[in-house]
Structure formats: structure tokens, C-alpha cells
Amino acid sequence: MEGHFEPVVRREREIDALIEVLSCRQRNCALLVGERGVGKTAIIESLAQRIAEGSVPAPLAEKRLISIDPAQVAGWTKGQANLVQIAAAGKTDGESSRAVLVLDDLADILAAADRARAANAVDMLRYTMLRAEIQCVASCTPAEFLELVEKVAGLVECFRPLQVRPLDEEAALEILRARKESLEKFHDVRYADEAIDAAVRGAAKHLPGTPLPGKALELLDAAGARVKLRQTSPPPEIAELQKKIKFIAHRMESAIQSHEFEKARFYSEEEKKERENLRVARERISCDDAGAMIVGAKEIEEVLASWGGYTGRP
Q1: Which is the CATH superfamily of the domain at 169-306?
Q2: DSSP 247-282
Q3: How far is the C-alpha of 175 from the C-alpha of 167, rounded, in Å?
Q4: Domain limits of the chain?
Q5: 161 in Cβ contact with 31 (< 8 Å)
């Protein structure tokens, strides 16, 4: 509701399939299967966003997504699994739970359960899932899926597997363009169009075996950090505006935590105004100063070279 999630594009098919599974009466738990970096977590976050916006079917409108961290599994006790207690919250007789457990990286969750000797908790989870008393959304890689089928087939069979395909370069470009604003805000830099293109093409060409858009986003992030480290002390006017923006952002966060959303919206608008003032000031003071904070294709190539995936040779 506070708009913290990144925008998700080109995943309508997977999101709709996930909603369809969760809307079923039986076997209504989903397992997203895809390589690391392909965007499984983003799909789950997009589901949360749709629920917050009210753009889901009636069976999901009142659901809450609750993320289970592997470290929490160590706290499970014999015969009483915390995750089952959490999922039962809001449950009334004859109704299913209003909570959907998010087991992001199912293999890690089960490994933690094994280390904590919480096999009973896993069995209880399987039992309640089979009876459709609780719902789960989990994720794993294809290799992990095959291993889980062998080791804990009874649990995996409770899920409906949904394949999350890697994105092509065109779709990855669209995602990076949608997310560059948040990275610009974080690093206080500007990304040139050539940097977006270089990140996607570079990841596809020089980082084989790593699906898009994950590695392209990492490249863009690392390049932004590289340019930020090179930045010299800004002129006083720029420094004052940056300080003011940080102050407003802090007040906005405090208002959100206090549930004073009218104040938060006011500070959000003020932050936008000051960021525009900052942009204008940079352009007015010196093109060179503004240019020093632009991330281009060169910075992407430098990051690739430092990762050992690019030599600079044709």
C-alpha cells in the first residue's frame, strides 16, 4: 500500500497463472520454478501489489501474504509449527486461512527444517496443505525442484508447479527502464539510455548462464555505485538541496510509520519538487558537474571487466 515494490512488466501470464492456482478449491498452492535472477520474487511481490490495489478475484481479496524466513524455521517446536499457527490467523470454522505463506526459496526452508530437526513441522505443513486448510506460494530452481521431488516428493506434490521463463533482451530492456528511477534515486546519479542497453546486451553476451533481467539489474546497480564513488564534493547549492531532500524523505518515512498518510503524501510531493530543483540546479551550475554523475556504457563495461566477463577486445 505504501508503494515500496518495484514495477513488474512482461509477467502478466505468470501472475495470472499464480492467481488462478490460489483461487482453486483443492491443491491451491503454487511453486514457481525458475533459475535464480529470473524474477520469481518479483512475481510474488506483484501479487501482493494487486491484492493491495484490490485487483484480484474475490477469493484473494482478503488474503495476506506472510513471508517465512529460513531462520524462523529454527524456532519451530515439535508438534507445533510456528508457520501453521501464523497461517491459522483469522481462520474461522469451515473457512480456509486468510494468510498465504510465502516460502521464497523452498530448498532453503526445508534445509533449515532439517537442521532444526523440525520434520514434524514439515509433515504438519504437508497435511494442512493437502486438506486445503492453508495456502503457500514457494519458489525454487529447476535443479532444486528435481532434487525436492526425490527427497520430499509428498510435500512437492502439494504444489502446482508454474514455470517462470527467462525474459528476452527486449523485455529486460523494458524492466530496466521501469526500474532505473529507483536506482537513480538511491545512487543519486542519472542513467543514460546507452547504459540501459549496455547492461542488457552485456549481461546476455558476457555473462552466459545467468538469466535476464537479474544480472542486467546487478550491472546497472554496480555501475551506479561506481560513479557515486567517483563523485567529488558538490557545490554548496547542490549540497544544500541534497540535505533538504534527505530531511524531507526522513519526515516522510516517520509519517508513514506513524500511519499519518496525509502528511506522507505531502512530504512525497515536496520531495518531488526538491528533486526537480536539484536537477535544474545541476544543469545550471555546470554541464560537467551533471555529466560526472551520469552512468553510461563505459561504466557498464568497467563493471563487466571487474567481474571478469569482459575484456574490452572485439
Answers
A1: P-loop containing nucleotide triphosphate hydrolases (3.40.50.300)
A2: HHHHHHHHHHHTT-HHHHHHHHHHHHHHHHHHHHHH
A3: 10
A4: 12-163, 169-306
A5: yes
Name the pTM for this structure: 0.69
Domain 12-163 part of CATH 3.40.50.300: yes
Q: pLDDT of 10-35, one tens digit each?
A: 888 999 999 999 998 888 899 999 99
The SS3 assignment for 229 reads helix
**Least-confidence region, from 208-217, 241-250, 262-271:** 208-217
What grid cell was written down for 205?
Answer: 553476451
Q: For the segment 130-183, what is each residue's pLDDT rounded down to a tens digit?
A: 666 778 899 999 998 888 888 776 777 788 999 998 888 998 999 999 988 889
- Contact residues for 52 (Cβ-Cβ < 8 A; gap 6+): 1
Measured over the CA atoms of residue 34, residue 37, residue 40 and residue 43, the dihedral's sign is negative
Give the burial class of 85: count Cβ atoms within 10 A of its Cβ; 0-12 exposed, 13-18 middle, 19 or more buried.
Answer: exposed
